[in-house]
Amino acid sequence: MRQAGRFLPEYRKIRAKHSLVEICKDPELSAEVSVLPVDTLGVDAAILFADIMLPLEGMGVRFEIKDGIGPVIQSSLDEFQKVNSLSTLDPSSDVPYVIEAISETKKLLNSRVPLIGFCGAPFTLASYLIEGHATRDFLNTKKLMYNDPKTWHLLMDKLSTSMGTYLRAQADAGVDAVQLFDSWVGCLSPADYRAYVLPYSKRVLSYIKDKAIPRIHFGTGTSAMLEEMKHAGGDVFSIDWRIPIDVAWRMLGYDVAIQGNLDPAVLLGDRDLIRARATDILTRTGNRPGHIFNLGHGILPETPQESAQQLVDFVHEHTMLRG
Predict the structure, then answer these.
(1) Is the pLDDT of residue 187 over 80?
(2) Per-residue pLDDT tens for 44-61?
(3) How many independent structural domains does the chain possess?
(4) Using the 8-state DSSP alphabet, how is residue 257 labeled?
């Protein structure tokens, strides 16, 4: 997952000297952090070290990322005029450091493993912009969505256009796959997802449909809306731990790949628990092509490095024996 480096001692040494945003805006540091999990754990792909909020700065949004809190927006976008004032992202001038980081990371990887780029999905970004910070109930987001659909759809239109352009720029810069992170969309009902979100996620993913690289569609708490998410698009669907992976795959259909779905908290348990839960996931997927073993959400900072290493080694050994 995206935070794969943050529990490693090497990453913490860098963070002791630099803020998260400083690392993201320094292509060489971003590249160094991106390859840490590959070099230390031997995982099978790298994901670009960046943050979903970065492109919003180019759209005119002022924010800061506070340790232990996450993104905090200086002025919530809860009115039509505020939303209307948002600019459309130009990746080459607004986030050139991300494009440069892709090049630097590819050099360090030297074709050892693929590099995954990503962006935040329109709904998840909209929820931050409206709420001003992370929340549990998303009441302000839903209030705007239900009571001011004109403003809602304008916001989603601007976000989907900008994020589509952003993903396209990453694909043009050489990433081998992209992932659309819709971390908070599980707060919605399937009907609301269909009416207020689906068209915009679909638009983002359509920007790279012709690039012939995998498009990963990720959400948490989305067990009830997997069929709807499939209509939004994607070649790979990433699921959390709240649904058995074989059940989720049957719901999605076997014409797509699936990614997941170990609970990150399992890595706080002992070796036997880690092996048992990993075995269950691998057994449920069988020998079917198209499964990417992963956590169901970001790795926890408290995770012991040896536990992560045990998981990687076990999955490699198990799948080699199976294959």
Answers:
(1) yes
(2) 999 999 999 999 999 999
(3) 1
(4) E
Which residues, other chains included, contact 223 with Cβ-Cβ below 8 Å and sequence gap of 6+?
A: 239, 240, 242, 243, 248
In this prediction, residues 98-120 reach a mean pLDDT of 97
Question: Distances in Å between the alpha carbon of 94 and those of 90, 128, 198, 203, 232?
Answer: 6, 20, 27, 21, 27
Q: Can you give the residue range of the structural domain that contains 90?
A: 9-238
DSSP element (H, E) containing 167:
helix 149-173
List, in sequence order, every residue forming a beta bridge with 72; answer none if it has no partner: 64
State how far the Cα of 102 lies from the Cα of 108, in Å rounded to an integer.
10
Q: Residue 259 phi/psi, 5° resolution?
A: -125, 135
Q: What CA–CA distance (Å, rounded) separates 104 from 123?
A: 30
Q: Note the pLDDT of residue 7.
A: 87
Q: Which residues are catalytic?
A: 2, 6, 15, 51, 128
In Å, how far from its chain's centre is CA 129? 17
Q: Is residue 186 part of a domain?
A: yes
pLDDT in tens, 307-323: 999 999 999 998 875 54
Residue/partner pairs of 139-142 with CB below 8 Å, 24 or more apart: 140/76, 140/78, 142/187, 142/192
Length of the chain as a residue count: 323
Give the three-state DSSP class for 241. Answer: coil
Report the alpha-carbon distance of residue 61 to residue 174 in Å, rounded.
Answer: 27
Q: What's the predicted TM-score (pTM) here?
A: 0.95
Find the CATH number of the domain harbouring 200: 3.20.20.210
CA distances from 161 to 14, 55, 151, 177 (A): 34, 12, 16, 19
Burial label for 118, CB within 10 Å (0-12, 13-18, 19+), is: buried
